[in-house]
Batch of 4 targets.
Target 1
Amino acid sequence: MASRQSGQGQIVLLRGINIGPRNRIAMPALREALEDVGFEDVRSYVQSGNVVLSSKTKPEQTARKVERVVAEAFGLEIPVIVRTRAEVARVAKLDPLGKVAKEPKRYQVTFLSAKLGAAAVKKLEEAAAPTERFAVHGREVYAWHPAGVARSKLWALLAGDKLGVTATSRNWTTVTKLLELAGN
């Protein structure tokens, strides 16, 4: 596909949409709303709020702009985290749990709005089951849930709002697919 990119490739992660009956946003409508405000090369992946686009603004500015668009177009207050393609490439390259995390759907990366404080990391340590592993690197938490996330206290903490920062998680399959969609 030919690219008209005039800005940098960015990966936009909307927190908590299209999970159950609340916070429903159709991806075609979201793509259209983002294009209408000037974002280019807008593509989405699955229904859980993953968008790749091109923007001339910094990731933090893109996040605020997407939050405004979602509020105005869909009437929803949805936190948004944005990373550049280069940042997500570093996340994928680092892959600190790759040697133990053999099932991509049970290997999660939680993207944070800011680095975690020591108290939040201690909460994660206390929540992790003996078989689970996690690694905190900058504004990301990598977590391996070999028994799945359904009963995981670690997952519940990462997916909730008790860390003191905005957080949204994606499984390893989604992380690598978004990186692929973002291109070079």
Target 2
Amino acid sequence: MKKLFVVLGLLVLVPAMALAQGSYYVDYYSNNYDHGYDQAIRIINVGTLGTPLTSPVGDICANVYVFDANQELLACCAARLTPNELASAAVNRDLTSNTVTTVVPGSGVIKVVLAQPPGPSCTPTTIGATPDAGLGVVFGTHLQKEGNNLWVTETQKQPSTLSSQEQGFLQLACSFALYIGSGQGTCRIHNAGDATPPPA
């Protein structure tokens, strides 16, 4: 009977531990070559914490981490989004054109961590508050290729659980990439305050 209580206790504890962790979005990119087309991610602050009238209350940080297919972090960046604001980034032009290795990968993984700002500015090396995928929504377009045929698909990302270990790794790997990159290893996210137009 005592073992049964222990098992039941663990079953109750595991979901509670999962809830205590953060949540984030994970996407992929593929066929990332210069063939006249690009893929994009789009991030929207859904206004969970405020409205455009309450900003900076309600602002969030969108922290983006770009990996190649070998799990190596290549670039990272962050942008501050006011409630209801849209931010965009093209994979080839903005996320993989300035990698720490100077190599543009053909495929890989993009991780988007949304959190309340840790201070007056957003930085991918310091996520700050517990990440919460519910602060926004993320869409991604993908280039699919079969033979000589190339076409674009778009999906809305589903939240994934972000462990404290992975959160720490993302911040540390980003710090290391920016430190050794000497200007390399930074990506770009375009929003309303950016003079550069977002990807089409």
Target 3
Amino acid sequence: MRNKFDEQLLELNNRLIEMGALIEHSISTAVEALLTQNADLAVAVKEDERESDKKERQIEALCFELLLRQQPVASDLRIISAALKMITDMERIADQARDIAEISKYLADNPFIKQPEDIAKMAVETKKMLKESIDSFVNRDLDLAKAVLDHDDVVDDLFRKIRNDLIALIHEKPESGEQALDLLMIAKYFERIGDHASNIAEWVIFMITGTHKKS
């Protein structure tokens, strides 16, 4: 019985890794759509988001099977409940990547008022947080989960810089306001992606220690 349970836990790990890789790809494609002003890439992100939905349902079904058909002990229950919480945050990240790509479509036809280099940096940092939060689950790595939480400050600092730069630009060139707000919204979505990656790390900490930050 335990062997079967351990096999399914390994499958859970693999499915989470696959879903995480797909969402990382979505983030990369969304930011490429922005930087290259390629509206067609938004379609690919939307397709990725649908696939993420499917993977979320598959992982959810596997978790419920582990709960109903096996005999999990307390530590196993924490693994399963953490995974269920994680996929909710992961799917929200996929949704936000789709939203970034959608906004990027509207920015494709006009020159940038400011090159979105810092937004590109936010994309890199949030992908790092997502990957490491999932790695911390798979490897039961408490230190890595805590490092993800610390790294959220990097994303927050980039968001504040982008916000301040865009506000200054609006004051200088009021006619740039509409695009500035679109860029600010994209930066805000990346900030939220960082928050969701932090949530995943917090559930990993709960899985390992039995304590959740918000408890």
Target 4
Amino acid sequence: MSEEPRRRVLLATLIPLGALALMAVYLWSMSRILLATDVNIAPVIALLFALNILVGAGLAAGFPKRRRVVATMVAGIMVPVLAVGVVGAVAGEREFHSAVSEGPAHEPGEAPPEEPGEEPAPGEEPAEEPGGAATSFTVVAQDLQFDTQSLTAPAETEVEVTLDNRDPGVPHNVAIYTDETAAEPIFVGEIFPGPDQRTETFTAPEAGDYFFRCDVHPNMSGTFTVA
């Protein structure tokens, strides 16, 4: 086989493999960036990535005979995305993913185990147990909304929160943040589909007004008051 046919066969093999490798690196970088980004900002970044690809493809198509120009444009797109993807991988995934439940804590069809002691009725304000040991409240999620938009608890006290998810097959959780930006979490509850219940505990912060929501459906939200 002469040198020219051999070179063509080599290029016909290496170019598709190189393209696949570049696509894999680009997709990996995008996934790291989106997983490390706030849930409210991730869709905007995904849209910008799509526009990035479309613009890059359009520019490459406009210069079919200028390989150096095309290579420079590809590098200009790939290198920043890869760099930010590495930063996202080092930063780790956002809290939303680490809180996802791996599965129900009991057998399907079996009623969830009852917690010791009496639980407040849905929507009832928290009531401190005798001796000030803990505070508990129940939040009901039904029809993609919480049954209350106001929760209260004493400052710097262990709080027990029960989420009663009554939406079949729909995941919900209760998460508490310092403010409506949801940038600094105080407590992030387990995400699980209904119908089911989960009871978790956390320590209330100092006195003030805070923000609670369902991380899957941010429109389900309210004010968490610590007195």
